[in-house]
Amino acid sequence: MKDSILIRGLCGVYRAMLFGYPREFRLQYGVEMQQFFHDRCRELVRAQAGSGLWFRFGLRNLTDWIVSTVRERRAARKVPGTRKLVQEWAVTLLLFLFVTTTLVQAYVVPTGSMENNILVGDHMLVDKVGFENGGNNWSSYVLPRREVKRGDIIAFRYPEDIRQTFVKRVIGVPGDRIHLTDKQVIRNGQKLDEPYARHSSPSIDEYRDNFPTAPESFISGGAQEMLARHVQDGEVIVPSDMYFVMGDNRDNSLDSRYWGFVPDNYVVGKPLVIYWSYDAPTSDLATWNLAHLEDVALHFFTKTRWNRTLTVPRSQAANY
Amino acid sequence: MPKPTDLLPLTPPVFHILLALADEERHGYGIMQDVARQTNDALQLGPGTLYGCLKRMLAAGLVEESDERPDMELDDERRRYYRMTALGRSTVRAEASRLSEAVTAAKARLRFAGGKE
Question: B48 to chain A: which residues are within 8 Å by CB?
Fold first, then answer.
């Protein structure tokens, strides 16, 4: 018995409707369900069903389809297949990669040069698009951005080794004249009132505290060039597209005094939020090691500085 | 080992599918026809409902696929036959007695309530 056009048409529609079911279910039962539907159609034809019966048949199948597709999809969601799992995680992974490469960067503070404002073991996210020079230009159309200002805490690539990221405070922007007298920073002839600065040693180191004088110890090439080309009348003059940065922990900070200016395009961004602060020594934070993992596992709750979690390192302009 | 009472109460489609398989193995379409006979056409299973139920019943161990092909008249390679397991049989028995107790309780209560009218 050859199928009528009606049966073939209905079966075609039903075959298309099968795609409403989850893939696994369709592969498992789709053929049988088509067969089932086909049998039902043939039976109605054999019984010479009137239009009323066909209509009821159609309505009933539509209801069945709606109810069972919803149920099967929900069931499929509970136990996702490998394929689905890969798909979902791929999206998550792509988003993660996008966010971590263009918008923010996770950063661990390994040294105490910014104490007491940023501590050793602070894990922070750095906002990579907040500054005008922070790399990507397209984001300036969608996100608020501003120039790097004096007093800003910035994350930047260490000019002597760009694989390392440093966090320091901007003391001088292009054109500023800077020198120190007995630990006191003097910018453009004004003494800075720096409530954020900390002095851990009472003794005076000639170069460190009366900068820029003749260095007594080794300073790197960048600092030597700064001293040779950008010092005028005992003051460092910050050239264009450069910043002079210092750690808040003034007596214990390797900063612009020791390695020179930070070029504008080395600025990564500004610290956004400290998401985790864990009390650990510098050596453990600089490189990952098993002992550190063990330490975290054992002392996560006691050595985490909970009061620092989700705090924002504040930029603070110096008062004159 | 799952107990027959674990899955109670059964949904009407599951209950009637098990009843349809009580006396013989059937393919999907045969199950639908038998369920319609059992219920005087009150329950007409659509393909989505039927195979969705069968999928869950297979997973729960109430039914299993059969290798035999008893229905020679309507036979087709694409048909799969389903058969009730021992767990399926004890489960549908437990459900039937549960229902019968419920019906007894309902009858007693309704006769009482009806007397007040």
Answer: 21, 33, 64-65, 67-69, 72
Instruction: Output the pLDDT for position B116.
Output: 47
Tell me the C-alpha to C-alpha distance, in Å, between residue A51 and each of A54, A56, A59, B37.
5, 9, 12, 23
Q: Is A291 helix (H, G, I), strand (E, B) or coil?
A: helix
pTM across the whole model: 0.52
Whether residue A110 is found in the same domain as residue A73: no
**pLDDT tens digit string along B84-113?**
999 999 999 999 999 999 999 998 888 766
Tell me which residue in B47, B52, B55 faces A36 most closely, judged by beta carbons: B47
Distances (CA, A) of A73 to A30, A58, A68, A80, B7: 15, 22, 8, 10, 22
Q: What is the pLDDT of residues B7-62, one digit of tens each?
A: 888 999 999 999 999 988 999 999 999 999 999 988 889 999 999 999 999 999 99
What is the CATH classification number for the domain harbouring A172? 2.10.109.10
- Domain range for A44 is 5-78
- Put simply, the answer to whether A33 touches B48 (Cβ < 8 Å) is yes
Q: How far is B94 from chain A (nearest CA, A)?
A: 26
Report how far residue A112's alpha carbon sits from residue A121's, in angstroms, rounded to the nearest whole number. Answer: 9
Name the residue facing B48 among A28, A40, A68 (closest C-beta): A68
Domains defined along chain B, listed by start: 12-116 (1.10.10.10)
CB contact under 8 A, A35 and B29: yes
Same domain, A170 and A54: no
